[in-house]
Amino acid sequence: MTGRRDKIDLICGAAVGALGLFALVTSLGWDFGSMRRIGPGVFPALTGLVLIGLGLAIAVFERSAPDDDAPAPVNLRGFALVVAGLVAFTVLIKPAGMVPAVWAAVFLSARADPSARLRDTVIVAVVMTAIALGLFIHLLGFQARAFGAY
Predict the structure, then answer these.
(1) Which parts of 1-139 fold into alpha helices (H)?
(2) How many domains in the chain?
(3) Which of 28, 24, 18 is CA-nearest to residue 58?
(4) C-alpha span between 66 and 83 (Å, rounded)
(5) The domain containing residue 106 runs over which residues?
(6) Which of 17, 88, 24, 2 is nearest to 54 (CA)?
(7) Do 115 and 135 share a structural domain?
(8) What is the pLDDT along the chain (150 residues), one digit of tens a residue?
């Protein structure tokens, strides 16, 4: 299949891959720590690798829609809120700690869905923050603090 849909898939795949490459390159300047105590560079590096793989998969394999399908309208609000969530996490993680950073990132990203109710969004943010706190700080020994600067 060729046409407009292929170009959109290629552009979207390239954008996801570029975001992954940016995360990977940025993480190389951070401490990776050790297997016993992972550092702040590990998660962005792994996320970057996953995004690069997803970008390649989107660009290469996403060819399922027929050419005559009209593309869905672009959800700029959703895009802006997901980016705002990533920026909030980046800005808050060092000065405020993991709990505020993860909560803000999840809350903003969850609000990207226009049908999401505020109550459900808050519940998702609280649950995901608790999971991240338990997994990264308590189980894996991530070097960030739950609250406050580190």
Answers:
(1) 4-27, 42-61, 76-96, 98-110, 118-132
(2) 2
(3) 18
(4) 30
(5) 74-150
(6) 17
(7) yes
(8) 455 556 778 888 889 999 999 999 988 888 888 888 888 888 889 999 999 999 888 888 766 555 556 667 777 888 999 999 999 999 999 999 999 999 999 999 999 988 989 999 999 999 999 999 999 888 888 888 889 887
